[in-house]
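During the second year of the project, the team shifted from modelling isolated chains to modelling whole assemblies. The rationale, set out in the original proposal, was that interfaces cannot be judged from single-chain predictions alone. As a representative example for this report, we include one of the complexes processed in the last quarter. Its constituent sequences, exactly as entered into the pipeline, are reproduced here:
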Amino acid sequence: MREKIVSILRELRPEFDFNEPLDFIEEGMLDSFDVINLVTALDSEFGISIDGTDVLPDNFSSVGNIEALLRKNGVKA
Amino acid sequence: MKLKFHRKRITGILTVLPSREVTFEEEMENYNFSVSKSMKLKMAMGYNKHRIVEEGVCVSDLCVHGLNFLFKNRMLRKENIDALLLVTQSPDHFMPATSNIIQGKLGLGTDVFCMDINQGCCGFIVGLMEAFMLLEQESIHKVVLLNADVLSRKVSKRDRNSNPLTGDAATITIVERSDSNAVIHGFLKMDGTASDALMIPAGGFRLPASEETGRMTEDTAGNFRSLDNLVMKGDEVFNFVQREVPPMIEELLQEAGCPREKVDWYMFHQPNRFMLHKLADKLGVPREKMPSNIVENFGNSSGATIPTNISFNIGDRLKQEQYMFCLAGFGVGLTWGALLMNIGNLDFNEIIYY
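Output from the structure prediction step:
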């Protein structure tokens, strides 16, 4: 799951290294429109629909948080 | 607030759109964004093209054009109009009411009940509720509900949060009494504590327009706008809609004893495709039952999007057939509301251009 997430993030913002332990939102690596594109890509890749109430910046601030969100939405590790 | 209405129906819908069409690509260079990022945004949100009025065109111009079309084609008679209800956030003037101006331009009788309502994205729902209430009066048999806005004139062309999705339009909905016993169930909620989530800060009496309020400044996301322009806290609005709208629809259906699959069409306000897809998924409604193609074709025209949606996606079929509709609007105020009602066998349901 982790590799797929990093691959999607890299495609979205190739100028950043998403393996770094940084807060993607605070560091400006992802803005609100990136989050929308990310949700669309994750929905498509994992065959889910992330709940609209979960589209909050904190859920996309690290690969770990994104993994947790996907698990919450039914994706198995 | 739960509401119920009896013996009311819609008998016709006309959508009036500006002839001027502008594509996303034509405006892309105005935004402080890379081309590739803009294109990704276009895909996710469903931005494509929008209809906006020419300089100087006002709400009354669109409404008068549409009503004259109906008179000329004998789809509506002047003498049968008892009330003219205009829902708009972009009136021709602060005073008088634009509905009075429209009445005057059309030469309608002095017995016509004219009223302006300041509502936006929930304006079709609020307007219909008000029309149903007016029809409780013995002397009112036919209400002409006008939903019209020209907010493109108040949006900064360099604001990628708002400009690509804004559209102008007017819709004319004829509302009358019905012989049917079918109950129309409604729901309406408002939260003024978040009234700054969508607003035009300057130009009213609180902060009159001045040279200072007209000065462009850059926000943290790289958008340029002035205090005279519309500003939207996109994240807040998105979260409010995802949090509040699904439980409202669930409660409405439960109140009416209507299983969700019995609803033929979920005609919701059209902010962007992403938001509507998330609402459909959350409600367990097939996306094809909740059309989301108005922003990509015409733009978001506030209270006019629901009737535009009905005219564009169902059109003539609604002249011969009847469907169960769940209508929902949500936005500025904040205001959110919904109606569950049959609509069909309309006298007209079409789009014309100004």
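Chain A has one domain: 2-72. The two ends of chain A are 6 Å apart (CA to CA).
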